[in-house]
Amino acid sequence: MGNKEQMEAYWRANLRYVGILLGIWFLVSFVFGILLAEPLNTIRIGGFKLGFWFAHQGSIYVFVILIFVYVWLMNRLDRKYGVRED
């Protein structure tokens, strides 16, 4: 595989990761926190309504977790394509 083809494959994989992670974030923050808040509020975890928790804290926790997942995925992808920075 040529260098240009490798870089295009690297970029496609990067965009796929970003798309998947943004989809998860959208699902948690918008769908669970806003669209499905009322039905989720019938469920209580630790005394808090689940829809309320997703809207106020869950989406933030998930976003931070997604940052760490993205870093892990990109480090793995960098090693695979030999474009590590260190």
TrEMBL record:
TM ranges: 17-38, 50-73
One Pfam family recorded for the sequence: DUF4212
Domain Sodium symporter small subunit per the UniProt entry, residue ranges: 8-83
Protein's UniProt keywords contain Membrane: yes
Keywords assigned by UniProt, alphabetized: Membrane, Transmembrane, Transmembrane helix
Transmembrane is among the record's keywords: yes
Protein name per UniProt: DUF4212 domain-containing protein
